[in-house]
């Protein structure tokens, strides 16, 4: 029997693939069911050697070794049961499987799968190096990072993918350039379905990874630098900053040649290694005039955005009142039982609730953030109830509808 393993890489539409295929109803294909459509956290925890598993588990409330042990026991049993009874092509997806240093995880995963499967198809979507670096840098800053180190995000292709070839065999690994012009159907989900052999058209694709323009990124980055000594913004305040920044007008964010050229030279061997496998060049266009050449360029852009940002905040805070229901839901999280059955773990604190009120977010936005937080922690039923309340306040909210789909997966 055959097992298909999608390994990313990051920033190539993995969330869209996982969202679509987790809803697939097919007599020929089965998607592995774990705690999340993205199998990265579960597989690293089940088949890696870290005592506390994947770092993201801590954000879901698994912050003690006993919690992680319980998680492993539960989801390994689920994994083994599905493998034992699999009667269709099994599909697995986790972009963390293509990270460097994963050879032990991959060996253990293959061993566990080989009791049932004797054929493997590994699919990796590959983004061009500069485009990937820019996108990864944005993601880090958007989620709280406060350092200007582009070189940390440059993709080292050979280090990422060589262990996949060693373990599954070079012939089993397919590399696909992440470029709409070459993807089947000009869409990564359609392309993945085509390569795997799924004849059904994919359901609606959710794309929740929007890029930031130069103006937006600059004000978020400067805020990070100013507030880094005080601690990162909490979820709602950070969401409000990012939401406001998205209203700013500016050119697309690009790194300039002073940053890009040394990286391309330093990692020429990595790039050539991947070009040989893709059969195409990974060359990219020269950065446009005005591209970011240094941290100071971001600071200069941020200084020009003071008034536009103030106006953007007014746009996202037109509704200054927060319904009492929103805050009662936020506060109710404090009484939720922790993973070990006690009630001493607070998901949200009084200080967090006060900050939400101070931020002046519209009720449906506060509820949306609450629903996403609960869903990440594993309280999907409560998250679904909260997002339904948010939709009752703003029935046409496209962001709310997307969150509802994410929770329903």
Task: Order the strands across the largest sheet as they lie in space.
Answer: 2-3-1-4-5
Strand fraction: 5-15%
How many structurally independent domains? 3
Query: What is the tally of helical segments?
Result: 18
Please write the CATH class name of the largest domain: Alpha Beta
How many strand elements? 5
Q: In the CATH classification, which architecture of the largest domain applies? A: 3-Layer(aba) Sandwich
Question: Which structural class best describes the helix and strand composition?
Answer: alpha/beta
Return residue spans where pLDDT drops below 50 for at least 5 consecutive residues. Answer: 319-353
Compressed to H and E, one letter per element, the order equals EHEHHEHEHHEHHHHHHHHHHHH
Overall form: globular
CATH fold-level topology of the largest domain: Rossmann fold
Mean pLDDT: 84
Share of helix, binned: 40-55%
Radius of gyration: 22 Å
- Report, as a whole number of angstroms, the end-to-end distance: 26 Å
The profile of the biggest β sheet is:
5 strands, parallel
